[in-house]
Amino acid sequence: MAVALLDSYTEMTEILLPNDTNNLGRALGGAVLNWMDICGAVAAMRFAGDQVVTASMDHVDFIAPIEQGEVVVVEAYVFDTGRTSVDVKVDVRAEDPRSDRPDRDTTTSFFTFVALDDEGRPTPVPDLTCDSDTEREMRERAVADRREQLRTVADRLDE
C-alpha cells in the first residue's frame, strides 16, 4: 500500500494569546514546539493510518519572533518513511491579518514519529508516493532543507 505526500498535509492555526507569551509579549518557545508536535503527529497519523508517537525532533532555531495577537500557521507533511517510522517537515509562520506585512517564517524542524498498532507495538507504515510535480518538489525541498540543517548543526559543533 502507498500513500501520497499530500494526503498527510496538515495545517493548524492559532492566535498567539497572553498565556502563550513571555514577558515581552512574544511566543514562548515551548508553546510553539507543542503546536509543532501536535501538527506533525496529525500529519503522521493521517499518513500511517495508525496512532503515532514522537521519536525525535531535529534541531530548532527560532528565526523570527511571533508577537501577541498574531496568527500562527503551522504546516506539516510526511516527506520520508522507514519501516515503522515517518519523517515529517513542520514549518511555522506568523501573520498579522491587521496589516499589509507579508507572512514571516519563524521556525522549521523535522520530526520522526513511529506508528503503533492497537497493542502499542511499532507497526509498518505505507510507502510514500509523490504523484505530482508539487509533491516531488515538496519532498525534494524537505530532504534538502533537512540535509542543510544537519550540516549547519554539525558545523556549529565543530567550532
UniProtKB/TrEMBL annotation:
Start and end residues of each stretch annotated as Disordered: 117-159
Residues in HotDog ACOT-type domain copies: 6-119
Record key words, sorted: Hydrolase
Chain intervals with Basic and acidic residues compositional bias: 133-159
Any single Pfam family the record assigns to this protein: 4HBT
PROSITE patterns with a match to the protein in the record: HOTDOG_ACOT (PS51770)
UniProt-listed InterPro entries: Cytosol_ACT (IPR040170), HOTDOG_ACOT (IPR033120), HotDog_dom_sf (IPR029069), Thioestr_dom (IPR006683)
Protein name: Acyl-CoA thioesterase
Source species: Halomarina rubra
